[in-house]
Amino acid sequence: MPTMTDATASGLCAFVDASPSPFHVCETVAAELTEAGFVELRETDGWPTAPGRYYLVRGGSLVAWSTEESGHGESPFRIVGGHTDSPNLRVKQHPDLRSAGWQLVGLEPYGGAWLNSWLDRDLGISGRISVRVGNTLQQKLIRVDRPILRVPQLAIHLSEERKGVQLDPQRHVNAIWGVGNSPTSFLGYLAGQAGVAEDAVLGWELMTHDLAPSAVVGLHDELVSAPRLDNQGTCYAGTRALLAAVEEPGEAIPVLALFDHEEVGSMSDRGAFSDLLNSVLERIVLARGGGREDFLRALAGSVCASGDMAHATHPNYPDRHEPAHRIEVNGGPVLKVNQNLRYATDAAGAGAFALACDQAGVPLQRYVHRADLPCGSTIGPITASRTGLSTVDVGAPQLAMHSARELMGAADVAYYADALAAFLTPVE
Ligand code: ZN
């Protein structure tokens, strides 16, 4: 069945494989937006007054919007939020190590990575480097899809009583990339790949990625096996939703806000704690000739859907889930509620998303975490408190969250995108 957003499981696989780092997520989304007539704006420039489709990139974060809505005066915003980063292993500042005749690259965890899932995988490297050109700096994206890194597991015969080993993030996640004792330079290798001199590389944010391609799996192709579904599942669905929303404009200004650094607390120049969203929303109003009063009035009528992946009920651990809130893959998007506000959902936000699902013909599931287990969080409570926007936390169900390889339902890809598209285009 063709959906309003054309979101598909294979489309999600291609999106994830194109996007090994937050910077590459922004590049992938920007390419899709550009094709649909979106124009990149810079924060250092004056912004055009004409209605149009625009986006901006700040590091690993991206915000996109369209002012071609059908309203007049100060239209409210409809915002879909998400995050571009995923837990992984990242390169240290002095990465070149040698041990027992092996050449190693010093790595450390980023965010709440399930360390066991990174073992025995063929890993590539991606991210960005800051390169000196004369007395100026250029940021360059970098990506190596060759399997040059590997974090090997201990042989079972060398573990105590053949039990699973406890992984130490300091000692056990360094990657092998060669043998011998001759000096090697990992950054020198990467500089060569980027076509620059090693001593011109002055800063870097470099991370590993699993090179096994994403795949549609299961007896009836009903599942998606991929890395980084948390939260590229939302980045993909949100992008499809925005592209659908601009084709059939509603009375609100549709906004897609994808933030870096959610997995490490969002407190950075471009994380959800930053001024990024507030500043973009205010500048949208100012560029159209509105003032501060108009901006505050627009905010008061706006709603944000914070999209992040949700926990499907695990068949091998059903006891870890709230028994009256079973979440099924391919059962539709998930509304997430937490009484301690780990999720921002309130009755008004829940109503807005439930209505959008109904308008899109998409089933809706409702999640609460077990009351005796600590609940994770999202950008939802952060953007809600930074902007004062009515907010709802939503997601698509998946298993194995924060593993190097995650699993979600193939049908949920279109369900999720269609629900977000309807949310972006509220109709009276
Ligand atoms: Zn997440």
Automatic annotation (TrEMBL):
Q: Name one GO cellular component term.
A: cytoplasm
Recorded GO molecular functions are: aminopeptidase activity; metallopeptidase activity; zinc ion binding
Q: Any idea which UniProt keywords this protein has?
A: Aminopeptidase, Hydrolase, Metal-binding, Metalloprotease, Protease, Zinc
Q: Does the keyword Zinc apply?
A: yes
Identify the cofactor(s). Answer: Zn(2+)
Pfam families for the chain: Peptidase_M18
- GO biological process terms, semicolon-separated: proteolysis
Query: Where in the sequence is the signal peptide annotated?
Result: none
Q: What is its EC number?
A: 3.4.11.-
Q: Which residues bind Zn(2+)?
A: H83, H157, H402
The answer, when asked if Lipid metabolism is one of the entry's keywords, is no
Q: Record's InterPro entries?
A: M18_aminopeptidase_2 (IPR022984), Peptidase_M18 (IPR001948), Peptidase_M18_dom2 (IPR023358)
Q: What class of enzyme is it?
A: hydrolase
Q: Which family does it belong to?
A: Belongs to the peptidase M18 family.
Name the chain's protein.
Answer: Probable M18 family aminopeptidase 2
Q: Which organism is it from?
A: Rhodococcus tukisamuensis
